[in-house]
Amino acid sequence: MSKAIIQIKGLNKWFGRLHVLREVNLEVAAGEKLVIVGPSGSGKSTLIRCINRLEEFQQGEVVVDGIPLSSAKNLEAVRREVGMVFQQFNLFPHMTVLHNVTLAPCKVRGWSLEKAERKAQELLERVGIADQARKYPAQLSGGQQQRVAIARALAMEPKIMLFDEPTSALDPEMVGEVLDVMRGLAESGMTMLVVTHEMGFARDVADRVIVMDQGQILEQASPEVIFQNPAHERTRVFLQRVLHH
């Protein structure tokens, strides 16, 4: 296994008195595809949001590509390496698709507009919506908007991509087009952490599936093991519920 690009040790997080992450330890190798599953409220989204400190945590340490998150001055360096795609698309409604994708590379990486637009066109092509570049988000379907959000995250040339339930706000017929883009990304060798309820995607794409429950990692193994022979009764009950929906 290649060297860990993400190291999480003894991570604890509280929201007020609610203990949402309890002593989480996790290492992710460069190029690994990790899918995080578990019941609602189990801490999945909070965990991946701690990786780029969108959520503050009270105890433990997170190191991304050798950079510890403990210091605020390292935050910008880490966020440059970590792309994030949310449940809601968070596109700027007053900007065209192209402008949404070029904004961060120009502002944060200091690229020329010409370079950023070239990269943006290439990425929009890759996610299958190059013909939508001049439109505004409101003119696109939910699936198209989420593909723009993925292109925007990729425009920063991150080493790691985090996906926080990227298909859960979509109409069922649009889920497939977003998952196809994510499958392509996985095949390209990108390090990916994906919180999702799409078990077919987890089965096809994950190198490792992490099952969370009540703020802890309940178990982790290959998709074959998790889906066919989980170690925990709680995992079995959870999977039965989601797979028979």
Fold and architecture overview:
There is one protein chain. This protein is an alpha/beta fold. The chain has one domain (4-244): Rossmann fold (3-Layer(aba) Sandwich). 38% of the residues lie in helices and 26% in strands. It has nine helices and ten strands. It has helices at residues 44-51, 75-81, 97-107, 113-126, 142-154, 172-187, 199-205, 223-228, 233-243, and strands spanning 4-15, 18-29, 33-37, 59-64, 67-68, 82-85, 160-164, 191-195, 208-213, 216-221. Strands 6-7-8-3-9-10 form a six-stranded mixed sheet, with helices on both faces. It has a four-stranded antiparallel sheet with strand order 2-1-4-5, with helices on one face. The radius of gyration is 18 Å and the shape is globular. Belongs to the ABC transporter superfamily.
What tags apply to this protein structure?
245 residues, six-stranded mixed β-sheet, 26% strand, four-stranded antiparallel β-sheet, Rossmann fold, alpha/beta
